[in-house]
Amino acid sequence: MKRLSGQARYRILVGLIVIILVYYAYKTLSDYNSRIIHEDQLEFARIKNSPVVISVFYEALCPDSKNFIVKQLKSAYSKLPNLIEIEFFAYGKATTTIEKDGSLSFQCQHGPTECEGNIIHCCAVESIHDTEIKLDFIACMIRDNGNPQKAFQRCSREYTVDAETIQKCYASLHGKELLKIAGENTHALNPPVSFIPTVLIDGQQRRQATILRDLFAEVCAVLSESGLTPKACENI
């Protein structure tokens, strides 16, 4: 193999140094822009006094719910983390039956496995208080929604959650009670649920087709109606 000349090695070294310098310059600029946007949102959060609340009425095995949470909700939250709070209600088009002995039974749109997944989701939502971790965990669960227990084990290892508390909740009557409450919140919607997921922004159903297609733009519209236009929304 022919050895590189000293001049060739020098040129390669200079090239590597230039690439490294360009990378760090780009990273510094990106970090600066992120910090500016972050500080901008904190200021708006102080002005608004409360975040925009996104309420997601969904099902653990629903493909449309999966698509919305993974693609729309995570994307919108990543752009406006200081201005968004999220509520999850895993129930959808299920039904609740109170048996003669007072016990609860459920029928879910995608069968018993979905009821199992819905209960795990409800327990996780109650247990996890940090919005970002809660969103990441629910998104992780719903990506692999064919086997809720397997997804729960995998996502519990990936994220810092109290897996023991969530599992105990799922295995107890409390888990079923949480699913019943999620159902009561779902049935209380006006107009009633016709499509899953149904998503509310600050308690309003607004334009569901737009929300499901471009949640971020709709959240920016809500903020604009309040007289707020964060930097992240300026190019909408």
From TrEMBL:
Q: Which InterPro entries match?
A: Interferon-induced_GILT
What protein family is recorded?
Answer: Belongs to the GILT family.
Looking up PANTHER family in the UniProt record yields: GAMMA-INTERFERON INDUCIBLE LYSOSOMAL THIOL REDUCTASE GILT, GAMMA-INTERFERON-INDUCIBLE LYSOSOMAL THIOL REDUCTASE-LIKE PROTEIN
Q: What is this protein called?
A: Gamma-interferon inducible lysosomal thiol reductase
Top-rank taxon of the source lineage equals Eukaryota
The portions of this protein that span the membrane are 9-26
Q: Name one GO molecular function term.
A: oxidoreductase activity, acting on a sulfur group of donors, disulfide as acceptor
Keywords linked to the UniProt accession: Glycoprotein, Membrane, Transmembrane, Transmembrane helix
